[in-house]
């Protein structure tokens, strides 16, 4: 359990950041986003149709 990790760098010497976790962020529309979707969808949105 005493694993040692080392940082990795690219050719320019910049640190390559690793992804630490994956978080699902679905279902979090603000009121403004929801209003914009409702207003703009009829003219700008494309409805999904299974073919």
Automatic annotation (TrEMBL):
Q: What does the UniProt keyword field contain?
A: Methyltransferase, Transferase
- From what superkingdom does this record's organism come? Bacteria
State the organism named in the record: Vibrio parahaemolyticus
GO-annotated molecular function: tRNA (guanine(46)-N7)-methyltransferase activity
Q: What is its EC number?
A: 2.1.1.33
Protein name per the record:
tRNA (Guanosine(46)-N7)-methyltransferase TrmB
């Amino acid at each position: 359990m005493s694993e040692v990790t080392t940082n990795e760098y690219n050719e320019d010497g910049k640190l390559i950041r690793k992804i630490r976790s994956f978080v699902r962020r679905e279902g979090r529309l603000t009121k403004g986003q929801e209003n914009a979707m409702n207003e703009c969808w009829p003219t700008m949105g494309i409805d999904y149709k299974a073919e």
